[in-house]
Design a protein that fits this description.
Elements (H helix, E strand, L loop, with lengths): L2 E4 L3 H12 L5 E5 L14 E2 L6 H15 L5 E2 L3 E5 L2 H16 L4 E4 L1 H7 L10 E5 L3 E3 L2 H14 L3 E4 L2 E7 L2 E6 L4 E4 L1 E4 L5 H5 L9 E9 L11 E4 L4 E5 L5 E5 L6 H19 L10 E9 L6 E6 L2 E5 L5 H16 L29
Length: 366
Amino acid sequence: MSVCVVGAGISGLSIAFHLLERDLGPVTLYERTAIGAGASGIQPGGVRQQWGTRANCLMAKESYAYYRAFGERFDPCGYLFLADEEETLARLEAGLAVQHELDIPSRLLTPAEAADVVPGLEPAGALGAAWCAEDGYFARPQAIVEGFAEKVGARGGRIELTGVLRIARDGGGWLLDLSSGLSVSTDVVVVAAGAESRALVAPLGFDLPIVEEPRTLFLSEPIRERLLEPLVIAIDRGIAAKQLADGRVLASDLRGEGDPATEQDRWRRRIHEQLDQLLPVLQFVAFPIVATGSYDMTPDGQPIVDALAEGLWVAAGFSGHGFMVAPSTGKLVADGIANSPLPEWHKALRADRFGLRPPEAEAQVI
């Protein structure tokens, strides 16, 4: 059996590795630019278990265990979700209930307790927070992407730097037309191309509700002093901030809309206004560096990882957390192709779930 994976980001690489680990192959990945050049190339390496839906919690918990054994330096600095409004706090409490059913060690904090776990936090106006001390960051997240690529190569997988223009049925298999001008036949195709996955499968009769949502991150120059250890997400204020392992402080305006080329100064000003109140320890930190990217969003904030047809799989719509769940994504797809039993939570990721039942939306997308 031959398998072609479209997209060599963290999800595609994990899928290829898990396929090869089961001796399912040969496996070839097709990437139009470079390994990890899309969303995987700009993500800051965060891994957390705090989610609002059972499926996301289970994927994250499985992936968390895998990552902790990966060998790269992981900093369990903690994630704090701060709520200023009753409705937001109620959503966090609902998420905590799901997490506790799965033995995820998150907990609810009072504003004073939040200030204890985040030195320098000024919690005035906050009603409470959700906290998990086990959540954290990889010091060198790109090393994880490279590590998966090395594992793929070591097991005989190939990575071709050429784009996939079209996928078509080819008897009992599939035909890929490449930007190099060549066409290749394969038994199985896995489309893991982020927001572009929708256009690739649309001509085959599958309309995936995946839309591209621009995101902008602001970073400081490296700062020697440790100013902020946990990641702080002030939900109702629409900002998030964290100091990375290299000393850079990362901040984002979670409400930023528009063209980054024209709006980034306004977003930067709003970040400063909010941080001056919430984390005055950061008031003299400048954010001259801008990193732009995008999320491949679904209506419910959960990915689509499913077989669309015999020999055609999709793994996309990760809504900004593809890195966090890549190990479980890879295992799920490999199990499906191998006809092994799939976990119960796979039902929440099916492509046909939209419009068939009340949505279980993920409330903790940042």
